[in-house]
Please model this.
Amino acid sequence: MKRKTKLIHGGISTDPATGAVSFPIYQVSTYKQEGVGGHKGYEYSRTGNPTRFALEELIKDLEGGEAGFAFGSGMAAMTAVMMLFNSGDHIILTDDVYGGSFRVMTKVLNRLGIHSTFVDTSNLETIVSAIKPNTRAIHLETPTNPLLKITDIEEVAKLAKEHGLLTIVDNTFSTPYWQNPIELGADIVIHSATKYLGGHSDVVAGLAVVNNKKLAEDLHFVQNSTGGVLGPQDSWLLIRGMKTLGIRMEETEKNTAAIVDFLQGHSKVKKVFYPGLETHPNHAIAKKQVRGFGGMVSFDLGSAENADKFLSKIHYFTLAESLGAVESLISVPARMTHASIPVERRAELGITDGLVRISVGLEDVEDLIDDLNQALE
Ligand SMILES: Cc1ncc(COP(=O)(O)O)c(C=O)c1O
Model:
């Protein structure tokens, strides 16, 4: 099955009980048992719900894994995955991960004895030098947020296997439409499904996919024990959003290429960060591992004042946290999504005050370029 077909026919696309082509919302918490233990596969909706299961099967098929899991947010998915580890374990993560991922590792999970080190995972040697006897996993975000650095998943997964570590990939930016980490050797994939998978700025959700039975059993145990599950209504919204992921990603790609071209030629733009650019330091790896470069672009306007002036003039790019929606969104990472990262660390990473990040949407690209142009002028 090709990818666009899988988005429509993957998972459980039709309700086996009724034939309903739109999988029904099973708005239910518990299930009648004919005798003790005599149920039809569902006992209680924290443990399993048919609508959530249809979504979990769909993301499993899209990522090519063994089992999928749906959570109340991307952060809930990441936290559940981290609950696979024990006190005393150490995780290596990409240095410019999403601010919330940095926060949960350094302000919450550290209190439970799960330690972390953040390194530039686009450089294998820095990963090797961060491995300790208690390291258990390497957690990658690629492309990164907001500087769009690329890590070679295949190479990291090989290295991880040599050291007996798990490879976890946050695939939010690329989505399974453009990138399949499990095929490249990763063990676990995480999504903030709030972004491209949902695609319409109307649902907060997280997904995880694992590549073997043991991890599937362990993560289901954590999901059921800690309970951060996605409800049936939001599961249904996600299934609906994901049906159009392919055409949305294709169209986003075209709009983004035109916008990157425009930004590169503008004198007020100091630097453009986009993995599709041949000048991007990791362009060769990106070309090897993704089928599309995505709709996220960052550019530097030189100062916070310039960024503020620009933002006060822009119309079609909505100033908001989040990304991956039909509407174009814009943010200033240093003061929004990455504000929870200490200022010195942001400076080290190159997340400057003048850095603006856009998530290119599906408006007419001529309108988007005209809008950027007038705001820059
Ligand atoms: C790359 C990435 N991972 C994880 C998250 C967290 O997801 P959520 O906001 O759904 O909890 C985000 C949110 O912006 C993100 O951008």
About this structure: The mean pLDDT is 96. The two ends are 48 Å apart (CA to CA). The chain has two domains: 3-242, 245-376.
